[in-house]
Amino acid sequence: MLDPKGPRVVLGSHDPVDGLVQPVTPQPHSLFGPRGAVMASSDGPLAVCDTGHHRLLIWSKSPTSDHAPADIIIGQPDFEHEGRNAKGTPNAATLNVPTGVAFGKKALAVADAWNHRVLIWLEVPTQSHQPADIVLGQADFSSMEINRGKGPTANTLNWCYGVSIIDERLVVSDTGNRRVLIWNEIPTRNAQPADMVIGQYDFESRDENAGEEAGPLGLRWAHQVAQSDGQLMVSDAGANRILVWRKWPDSPGTPADYVIGQADFNGLEHNQGNYWPHAGALNMPYGLASTKDWVIAADTANSRLVGWRPDDLAQAAKAVGLAAQKDFGSKGDNRWKMAVRDSLCWPYGVTICDRTLIIADSGNNRIMLWDFA
């Protein structure tokens, strides 16, 4: 599935010194628990949610060497500072646990999870501290309440962990409201309401599994959304599964057509109730990405990547691609050892650019650029 030599570029964490992991301090080349990364093209730019440092880092060109420093910072006054909302109040250039990031044709969107909002730059930032143009989920850039202090509506958010731009549609995993919101076009005004909701019967509900037993409609912990050959796919980490709609739903309450990671829609347990995984099981799959040849999931709690060929996608489909573990029956952070170049520790986000998989290897405090075989 991926180049057996391992990633061609690793950003962030350095190798241990004398066998000891070094403390993470904010610098232009350091990362602390990054949960999202995306590249606009093979030439760049690369944008990374440096989640633990509450900042967005941008490399203007695609990095070609390990531990390359970022060029642009948003969310902190400089590369040496950290803290939620820069230890102040929210504004158009601060962040509080940023987790997801996506490029459109021109725009850049960031899931600013603990400010319960999505920030949008209508054009990719070209300088540090550049403020966002649009905020979703809040009425203005200075607000940060869950669901704006009320219940969920079409223009509120609650722990929104994932964001994708697919065919210029903005898709947000509104995790705390147990739903996915879709804007049919990139929003152009603050607090613009979503056009469509998945995982609930309406915009005003936020019940786990849509208030029902586990089934094809509801969500527990939606995190990332991808598209494969017109099919919409949602990683539901809390239910240890991926839900798939053969076409994009056009009305709330539309059930999924099939599920991956569980034997059927009723299953919720990690690794299908087993301690050890297998090719058909998942354990908190947070990340999800697709290309014409592969659908890749970050099987986060199994510390591995698994992949399916698009033509093989079906009910309870077994993965045929694997990375970071020796076989489908193995798991363990860094294969139960110290981190090496081709191991993973709780990977959260995955995106694909051309022939490169961009991996947020959160537990190892690093980003990997790993080419397909």
Please give a structural write-up.
The protein has strands at 9-12, 36-39, 46-50, 55-59, 72-74, 98-103, 108-112, 117-121, 134-136, 160-166, 169-174, 179-183, 196-198, 222-228, 231-236, 241-245, 258-260, 285-290, 295-299, 304-308, 321-323, 347-353, 356-361, 366-371. The model has no long low-confidence stretch (mean pLDDT 97). It has a 4-stranded antiparallel sheet with strand order 1-24-23-22, with no helix packed on it. A 4-stranded antiparallel sheet has the order 2-3-4-5, with no helix packed on it. It has one domain (9-13, 30-371): Neuraminidase, CATH 2.120.10. The chain is built from no helices and 24 strands. Helices cover 0% and strands 32% of the residues. By secondary structure, it is mainly β.
CATH-assigned fold name: Neuraminidase
How large is the radius of gyration? 19 Å
- Give the DSSP E fraction (strand runs of 2 or more residues): 25-35%
Second rung of CATH, namely the architecture: 6 Propeller
Tell me the number of helical segments per DSSP (H or I, 4 or more residues long).
Answer: 0
- Reading the helices and strands in chain order gives EEEEEEEEEEEEEEEEEEEEEEEE
Q: What is the CATH homology-level superfamily?
A: TolB, C-terminal domain
Mean pLDDT comes to 97
Shape: globular
Distance between the termini: 6 Å
Give unreliable regions as ranges: none
The total tally of domains equals 1
